[in-house]
């Protein structure tokens, strides 16, 4: 039987009025510590796990409020397993082992519907000057990412421009259509839930008005 993941020797927890930030960087972790989940899982908004050996992200299901995740210098691959993270808006996976861009983006698009900031420099799937890629490869890579993640605003520290969105739409029209459709569907479902909730409240209020007063 495998050894239980030990807790790191130091946990740097910073708490402010508006958020909770946890850093477990440089802790030689292969898994997220269970005792840390038990203590802080329900309140973590920002998590720094840089410079570890993590490859499986299914532990994120225990962090329901996570908004920002830093995983630089880990063992994340294109086939990474991760749950739905509705509120995650920032993801850094620089210096990992991501080789298949399409496969990785499919997972991110499905499980990070609110993602605005993504940085994945120095991965094989993200060609750039830093890993031997040409300028044209870098530009094409940006167009492909933009076409896959419709909510994204910043890629690799560089804001996404309107011209990039237009070019991504021209080069990958089918991906943009699918992304737009999914985004539209999510919005319609949210409106439907709100409408249903409002109708339920109105029905309760009408029922209370129709109820006879005591003694009638």
From TrEMBL:
Source species of the chain: Elysia chlorotica (Eastern emerald elysia)
Pfam families tied to this protein: LRR_9
Database matches in InterPro entries: Leu-rich_rpt, LRMDA, LRR_dom_sf
Biased composition (Basic residues): 186-196
Record PROSITE patterns: LRR
UniProt region (Disordered), positions on chain: 176-216
Identification of the protein by name: U2A'/phosphoprotein 32 family A C-terminal domain-containing protein
């Amino acid at each position: 039987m495998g050894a239980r993941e030990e807790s790191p020797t130091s946990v740097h927890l910073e708490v402010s009025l508006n958020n909770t930030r946890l850093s477990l960087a440089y802790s030689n972790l292969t898994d997220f510590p269970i005792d840390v989940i038990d203590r802080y899982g329900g309140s973590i908004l920002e998590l720094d796990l840089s410079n570890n050996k993590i490859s499986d992200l299914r532990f994120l299901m225990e962090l329901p409020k996570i908004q920002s995740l830093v995983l630089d210098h880990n063992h994340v691959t294109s086939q990474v397993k991760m749950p739905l993270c509705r509120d995650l808006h920032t993801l850094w996976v620089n210096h990992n082992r991501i080789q298949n861009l399409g496969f990785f983006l499919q997972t991110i698009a499905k499980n990070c519907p609110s993602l605005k900031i993504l940085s994945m420099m120095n991965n094989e799937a993200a060609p750039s000057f830093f890993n031997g890629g040409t300028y044209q490869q870098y530009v094409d890579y940006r167009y492909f990412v933009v076409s896959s993640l419709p909510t994204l605003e910043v890629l690799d520290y560089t804001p996404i421009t309107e011209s990039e969105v237009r070019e991504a739409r021209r080069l990958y029209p089918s991906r943009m259509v699918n992304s737009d459709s999914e985004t539209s569907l999510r919005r319609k479902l949210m409106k439907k839930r709100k409408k249903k909730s409002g109708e339920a409240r109105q029905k309760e209020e009408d029922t209370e008005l129709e109820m006879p007063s005591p003694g009638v």
